[in-house]
């Protein structure tokens, strides 16, 4: 019971964090906390096989998949916080509270009798006991699982396959398109400016400076700009470096 | 013993509330996973209560189904993101792009 009372508050807090976290990566971390705690609870309840499977399948495979998709989708996909249905959030909270109260009361009233415990069932080993069930009475369900996994693999392959809708552009067409953009919209036809390198920093979050000392926004990679991680590169920073290099002399 | 079922109920409710409230399809999916995990906890608790391993086996099958579901669901989310550049469940309101 000690494991339960230590882990349960963390699990509830992490579950609330999953619902309330603004960023999807934080939600994923909260879910990982819940899953690892659940694995420990399985071990505490006489299910060592499920403990291992929970860690390997859920925190190993499924969370990795979630994080991969978050990485693919990127940081720009910010969630809109506007409610599309008026009063939806309050309604959802009320429904959840009523549902939770109903469930807890139902559980408290319907569950009676003493706890038997799985020690007797685990007599010949937990894995052996589960195997005897899986390949005995539940063998049909096991076979269906195989079909399900193959279908899921095929489905994922079909869904992730991208059809090319148009013809591939030739190098000449790309170059002509760039010059057309330049003629009509004034877009610079060449490559984007490289990041500026100051005396103190050589990282790509340092923006390039124009001759008048202003910052060139496009010289920093777009993801860094989206996350507001551009290092400030204005005139005063440059002056500070210049003073460090030659103390006692006005850089201007 | 009933504490485990209470915790399971609590986690399931939080997950359901998350499915109702959140907009980001990936977070909605994580909330569904939380609900499945809560159901698994209840299954394992009942297994211990009755002294049979059937509940643990059911939890194992739930894990297999959840893994298959995540693979297909995330593939759907990625293909929706490719066509609409958004993972908000509000934007995917049409069957045809």
Describe this structure in words.
The complex is a heterodimer of chains A (252) and B (97). Chain A is mainly α and 252 residues long. Among the domains of chain A are: 73 residues, Four Helix Bundle (Hemerythrin (Met), subunit A) (Up-down Bundle), CATH 1.20.120.1200; 32 residues; 56 residues, no CATH class. Chain A has nine helices and two strands; from the N terminus they run H-H-H-H-H-H-H-E-E-H-H. In chain A, helix 1 runs antiparallel to helix 2. The longest helix of chain A is centred in the N-terminal third of the chain and has 26 residues. Chain A is elongated. Chain B has three helices and no strands. Chain B is elongated. Chain B is mainly alpha-helical and 97 residues long. Chains A and B meet through helix 1, helix 2, helix 3, helix 4 and helix 5 of A and helix 1, helix 2 and helix 3 of B.
In short:
The complex is a heterodimer of chains A (252) and B (97). With 252 residues, chain A is an all-alpha fold.
Secondary structure elements and pairings:
The complex is a heterodimer of chains A (252) and B (97).
Chain A: H1 2-20, H2 24-44, H3 48-73, H4 88-110, H5 126-134, H6 139-160, H7 171-185, E1 208-209, E2 215-216, H8 222-226, H9 235-245
Antiparallel strand pairs in A: 1-2
Chain B: H1 2-21, H2 25-50, H3 54-84
Q: Structural class of the secondary elements of chain A?
A: mainly alpha
Mean pLDDT of chain B: 87
Largest interface chains and counts: A-B, 80 and 69 residues
Question: What is the annotated CATH architecture of the domain at 1-73 in chain A?
Answer: Up-down Bundle
Q: State the oligomer.
A: heterodimer
* Number of continuous helical runs of chain A: 9
DSSP summary, beta strand count of chain A: 2
Describe the largest sheet of chain B: none
Mean pLDDT over the residues of chain A: 84
Number of strands of chain B: 0
Helix content of chain A: 55-70%
């Amino acid at each position: 019971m000690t494991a339960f009372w230590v882990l349960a508050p963390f699990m509830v807090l992490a579950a609330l964090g999953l619902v309330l976290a603004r960023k999807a990566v934080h939600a994923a971390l909260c879910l990982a906390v819940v899953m690892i705690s659940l694995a420990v609870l399985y071990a505490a309840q006489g299910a060592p096989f499920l403990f291992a499977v929970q860690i390997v399948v859920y925190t190993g495979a499924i969370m990795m998949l979630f994080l991969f998709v978050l990485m693919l989708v990127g940081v720009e996909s910010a969630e809109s916080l506007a409610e599309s249905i008026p009063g939806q959030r309050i309604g959802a909270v009320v429904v959840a509270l009523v549902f939770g109260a109903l469930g807890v009361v139902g559980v408290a009233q319907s569950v009676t009798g003493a706890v038997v415990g799985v020690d007797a069932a685990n007599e010949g080993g937990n894995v052996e006991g589960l195997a005897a069930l899986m390949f005995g009475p539940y063998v049909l369900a096991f076979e269906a699982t195989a079909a399900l996994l193959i279908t899921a693999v095929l489905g994922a392959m079909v869904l992730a396959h991208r059809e090319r809708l148009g013809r591939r552009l030739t190098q000449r067409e790309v170059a002509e398109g760039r010059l057309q953009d330049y003629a009509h919209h004034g877009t610079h036809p060449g490559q984007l400016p490289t990041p500026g390198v100051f005396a103190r920093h050589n990282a790509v979050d340092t923006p390039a400076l124009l001759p008048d000392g202003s910052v060139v926004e496009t010289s920093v990679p777009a993801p860094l700009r989206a996350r507001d991680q551009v290092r400030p590169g204005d005139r005063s920073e440059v002056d500070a470096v210049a003073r460090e290099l030659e103390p006692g002399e006005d850089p201007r | 013993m009933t504490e485990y079922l209470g915790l399971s109920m609590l986690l399931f409710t939080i997950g359901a509330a998350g499915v109702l409230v959140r907009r980001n399809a990936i977070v909605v999916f994580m909330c569904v996973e939380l609900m499945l995990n809560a159901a698994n906890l209840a299954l394992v608790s009942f297994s211990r209560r009755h002294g049979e391993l059937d509940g643990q086996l059911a939890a194992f099958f739930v894990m297999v189904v959840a893994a298959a579901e995540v693979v297909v669901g995330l593939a759907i989310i990625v293909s929706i993101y490719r066509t609409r550049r958004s993972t908000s469940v509000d934007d995917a309101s049409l069957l045809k792009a």
